[in-house]
Structure formats: structure tokens, C-alpha cells
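Hello Y.,

Per our agreement to keep a running log of every chain we model this quarter, I'm adding this entry. I've kept the format consistent with earlier entries: sequence first, then predicted structure.
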Amino acid sequence: MHLEVTQLYKQFATKRGPLVALKDINLHIEEGEFVCAVGASGSGKSTLLRMIAGLETPSSGDVRVDGMRVTGPGADRGMVFQSYTLYPWMNIAENVGFGLKLQGVSAAQRKQRVAYYLEVVGLSKFAQALPKELSGGMKQRVAIARALASQPKILLMDEPFGALDVQTKETMQQFLLQLWEQTKTSILMITHDVEEAVFLSQRIYVLTSHPGTVRTEIEINLPRNRTYQIKRQPIFQDYRDRVMAHLRDEVEDVALV
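Predicted structure for the entry above:
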């Protein structure tokens, strides 16, 4: 398996005592696969992604990429956050190439790779612009280009379109599908938007809350080349309803506790 998460458990110390954020998380991603994880607030989605990225340490359990255990951040995993996290004093090309510079990539190689990924995300004309000159959707494209520039095996995305307006969000979703098809990069994306998860992914993990666990796994058998017309088809509605049913069950289970 490309990415394998086994028996992942995360506990935080609080004033009221130990808080279990994640318990017995088991999931995997095959090479070139697009997977989403959905869950309500309190399901530990972002904590899970941060542990896979190596930004948080599990209390117990295992995260492996191509058989190698994750012990910290690494170039094999690229991270895209909801906030754009761009450096405002750097132009777009410098932002995209910043990680490569830290890795010791030569100036000539950086220039070539930055130019390539700016072209991939359609922002070559804005290489010398500052982040403040770009729209929200364009800033997120820069963040994605920066993550891809290190040529990671897996792209980790934490609700990357959550701060965008509806129209821009839909445009970015279509863009992400095209980018995935073009780069063949494996993607694990966290989202609370069920329709977004069904539209983008090949499989969906539905997470419970308090603590976060995997409630179920749903395979999405839709064409790879998806357009927004597919959202009007009955099969799309059926998938969305299945995911929503699991999330509603989760809310009802919590209410009964």
C-alpha cells in the first residue's frame, strides 16, 4: 500500500484530564488514488492529517508511506491548508520555490521546476506578483503549486476550499480533478462538504466524533473525468445520501450517549 495508517490513536492532556481525539484509525491509499475523509466537528480530521504529515506525533499506532514509517515532516508528503500560508513579502515564484530552496535544490533547478508548476496551475503570468494581488482561488493554486513543486508522493489537503465562495470553490474542485489527472499524484483530502467528497474522490472514509474513528468506507464508482453535470445524476445523489445517512446516524448515536 502507498499510504497505510494502522491503529492510530491520539490523546491530548487537558485540564479536565486526558482527551482522546482519535482511536483505532485504519485507512490506506493506493498509488495515484484520490481519497477523501469526511466527518463532523470533533472527528479529529485535521489532527489525523497532521499526524500523516508528520506535524503531530501519534500516541500510538503507525503511519507508513511505501513501507517507511513516518516520524516527522518529509518531502514525500506535501501539505495544503485551508489558509493559504503564503509569505506576503515574496512574489509568487519565490513562494512556490521556497520549499525547494530549503531542500538545497540548485537555483537553476528551482527556476525550472517553479516555472513548470506555475504553468500546471495556470499562473505563469503572475510569477512576479505578490500574494495580495491575487484572488482567494489564485492564492490556493499557488499553495498547491508550492506543495507539488517538491514532487511529493502524496498530497495532503486540509479543507483547502473551505474559505472560498461557492462559485470559486466549484471552479477549484474541477481544477483539482484536472490537476490530479495530469500529475497522477496520490491525494488525501479532509473535508466536511459531502458533495465535494463525492465529486472528487474514488473512496470516502466517514469519521465519527468524540473520539474520531472510521465509521465506514464507501467506494465511489463514478467516471474519472467528472464535470458538474454528474451532480444531477441519480447515482451521484445516491452516493451523497449514503454518506449523509452515516453522518446523521453518527449525530443520533452521540445524542443517545
